[in-house]
Amino acid sequence: EGPEGPLARRIRRRFGAALIDAFQHTDQPQFPIFSNAFAGCPLFLIGDPKQSIYRFRGADIHAYLRAATAARRKYTLFQNFRSTAGYVLAVEQLFTRASDPFLVSEQDIPFPRVSAALAPPPPGAVATDGRGAMEWWWVDGSLGKKKTVSKDDAIRLVVRDVTNEIVRLQAGGVAYGSIAVLTRTNDEARLVKASLDRAR
Predict the structure, then answer these.
(1) Can you name the residues that pair with 43 across neighbouring β-strands?
(2) How far apart are CA 64 and CA 107, in angstroms?
(3) How do beta strands 43-45 and 18-20 pair?
């Protein structure tokens, strides 16, 4: 019933302010609910549109962008508290190659340059192996005489190389419990597990 309805007034009597984290994962109906419930009260929306990756769950980047446009004040965190300086620099070099890497329906999402707030030492031999904080695997047609590689073959090649890299890291002192492999699907996760099992 809007900001003056009995439910909204009751919410405001109980809670004088609201802080909503990961707001980039919201959908279209949610922002009007929050803005009605907390009309006239402090409403903090914490989010990063570049992390809006849950469209399959209903998340809508346009809901975030609309809310950001309506905000009276905006603040940006220019220090990254999660990553090493080398990794922050690698991500920056990747995404600043294009002037508008996150163009959404003609609306540009900025990519501000940030610095690493902390300097945690890399684990084990990673600190001294001389390799970069981010590496690309290039999959080419080196499977016999074929000039192209099917998606399935490419995935198998990458899984093999990831397994070899994990074995190398462990030999250099990185505990298996410190390593994570992110996959897009359960089938890909099963391929990774089978490959790691074969490598013992």
Answers:
(1) 18
(2) 12
(3) parallel
